[in-house]
Amino acid sequence: MLIKNYKHIIWDWNGTILNDIDLSLNIINNILKERNLNTLTKNSYRELFTIPVKNYYEKLGFDFNKESFEEIGKIWIEEYEKRKYECSLYNGIEIVLKKIKDSGIEQSILSAYSQHTLEEMVDYFSLRKYFKYIVGLDNIYAASKLHLGIDLMKKLKNGKGETLMIGDTLHDYEVATEIGADCILVAEGHQSKDILIKSGVKVINNILELIEFD
After folding, report:
1. From CA 32, how far away is CA 28, in angstroms rounded?
2. Which CATH number does 8-18+89-211 carry?
3. What is the residue extent of each domain of the chain?
4. Contacts of 103 (CB under 8 A, 6+ apart)
5. Can you tell me the distance from the alpha carbon of 47 to that of 204, in angstroms, rounded to the nearest whole number?
6. pLDDT tens, position by position, 79-111
7. What is the tens place of the pLDDT at every residue in 57-82?
8. What is the pTM of this model?
9. CA–CA dist 156, 140 (Å, integer)
10. CB atoms within 10 A of CB 205
11. Contact, 127 vs 29, CB < 8 A?
């Protein structure tokens, strides 16, 4: 395994464990259409998406003088919450989580998703048994999870090279760097492989590649 030497794996949720790309794209396109802004293809979405989400909305042409970021974010998240169970887990994720657990490696989730809903979703998919900590934000606007990551690392008390973060965006890489974790990025989430490669860390095509190298 790529991960066999680590004591703890920190997982991102949206776009890494939960495949919510199609839903996210559909919701933003509906919002764009209502404002006569250009809609996105899946490819263009994955090229433009970024965190903080406010920067992503600016790229899409939203005018925050006419409509605040908070208002647009509220529209998006309310629709997402109504439809979140349309999403599925990525192919193979439960195989990977189980193999990691069986190897004696602890796992946690660190997400920019709201804490309450994150726990609801983890329980809906019966995944709680795999995770020591489930950590989300206390608001709906997905600004950054860096401060949460710092707190989580203090709890883990692991040394250098003992914690790995797995995500699907450059923000996950940035968080990993700031909190002192190694990082692997998965290129089937919210950002394209071309963007992820810029991080300089290991980029895999899908989650099953984590356990293909025993």
Report:
1. 6
2. 3.40.50.1000
3. 8-18+89-211, 21-86
4. 1, 4
5. 17
6. 999 999 999 999 999 999 999 999 999 999 999
7. 999 999 999 999 999 999 999 999 99
8. 0.92
9. 26
10. 10
11. no
